[in-house]
Design brief:
The chain is 39% helix and 16% strand. The chain has 12 helices and 13 strands.
């Protein structure tokens, strides 16, 4: 019996050593070589556990929906399908200016609360940052003055200002903690839709080398100077590329990127959905093949059809657009409700009674989609989760 106990102890010790070595090896998959265990395991799960399935996400899901705001436990998605999204999107614009609320009027204190709630239920967090232009407080992310990026690179007139902004963003990320004090992993997608020309970091506003330098400085500063090791870095273009070469024109390097993604929205007549399906499917194929070649993760970082006028859009358009591509997550944009500035409804996920709600439930039941209850069962942050 004693020999048996010794054998068992030795067996356990050997397997724990193998497991520890495996975790170390997996850490090399993440661009940040000092990434936390939870961050490593989330990235590993996105790569290995979601074959032919994807996490469904929704921007600002817990904060507000159509005709409601800040009501505990509410979610337009949950009220349609009985389950929360698996992925929650949030925005940090304004934090660099010491504002209490972001550009969507959500207090940063509430964003932190919602992030912690979603994470504790097993959900995944992604954060964008529509950073204001450093050329003046009244200039937004949509300012297109050329030379802005150059001004914040090392040696630029606004470099110290930019570092002070990164300090504030880093403080927020460092404050995101789980119940055991662990840092909550975040899919961070700065300087998104970089191939467009509507932000100060856009294609016509800076050249490829300047964009790469901006990304690489930001990565180094956040990981080395601020010692943030809970970020998974998301390279996120718009949908105006036609080839792998165009998609990667501003790519800053395999050593500083973890996720390859793009944004794509449908516009216009619902009867013309075939064009959206064909376009997104083709772009997704490019991104997924590139991600496989580079041992990265692929995603559709933002998508949707404003007010979803097509009742079968979820299964007949979005699912077909994704097709058989191995994408890890897909996020619909926010449910702002009535948009006074545009005199129309501005939402991208259905709410109870909305015309696409029945089809969204079919989408929810699809073998390809993962919502929060499924994500929780997969234990995306645990090394002991089933593969």
């Amino acid at each position: 019996m004693n020999l048996l106990r010794i054998y068992i102890k030795v067996f356990i010790a050997i397997n724990l050593t193998i497991l520890s070595d495996d975790v170390t090896a997996q850490a090399q998959e993440v661009s940040d070589k000092k990434a936390t265990n939870e961050t490593i395991q989330l990235y590993r799960s996105l790569k290995l556990k979601l074959q032919n399935k994807f996490l469904f996400g929704h921007q600002d899901d817990l904060a507000y929906g159509v005709n409601w705001r800040y009501q505990e436990g509410r979610s337009d998605v949950k009220e349609v399908v009985g389950d929360y999204p698996a992925l929650y999107g949030w925005e940090l614009s304004g934090i660099e200016l010491d504002k209490q609320m972001n550009i969507d009027s959500v207090p940063f204190s509430k964003i932190k609360q919602f992030i912690q709630e979603g994470y504790q239920r097993g959900g995944v967090i992604t954060i964008s940052w529509h950073a204001n232009s450093p050329l003046g407080e009244n200039k937004t992310a949509w300012d297109t003055t050329k030379g802005t990026v150059t001004s914040i690179l090392p040696g630029g007139v606004n470099h110290e200002l930019y570092k002070s902004w990164l300090n504030k963003v880093a403080d927020f990320f460092q404050s995101l903690r789980g119940t055991e004090g662990e840092a909550i992993p975040v899919l961070f997608r700065p300087f998104h839709e970089l191939t467009g020309s509507w932000f100060w970091w856009g294609k016509n506003e800076c050249n490829a080398e300047e964009y790469k330098a901006l990304w690489r400085f930001t990565f180094r500063y956040m990981t080395e100077e601020k010692k943030l090791h809970n970020l998974i870095w998301v390279y996120n273009t718009s949908d105006n590329f036609l080839s792998k070469q165009e998609f990667l024109e501003r790519y800053p390097g395999d050593d500083v990127v973890d996720v390859l993604s793009f944004d794509a929205y449908q516009y216009g007549n619902p009867k013309e959905s075939g064009g959206f399906v064909k376009k997104v499917n083709g772009l997704m194929k490019i991104v997924c093949e590139t991600a496989t070649e580079k041992n990265k993760v692929a995603a559709l970082a933002e998508t949707g059809y404003e007010a979803i006028p097509q009742k079968n859009w979820w299964t007949e358009v979005l699912l077909k657009a994704i097709g058989n591509n191995n994408v890890s997550y897909v996020m619909a944009w926010r449910n702002h409700g009535f948009h006074a500035g545009m005199n129309k409804m501005h939402y991208y996920a259905p709410f109870k009674g909305q015309v696409s709600s029945p089809n969204f439930f079919i989408f929810y039941k699809s073998s390809k989609t993962i919502f929060e209850s499924d994500a929780r069962a997969l234990k995306l942050y645990s090394v002991f989760s089933n593969l």
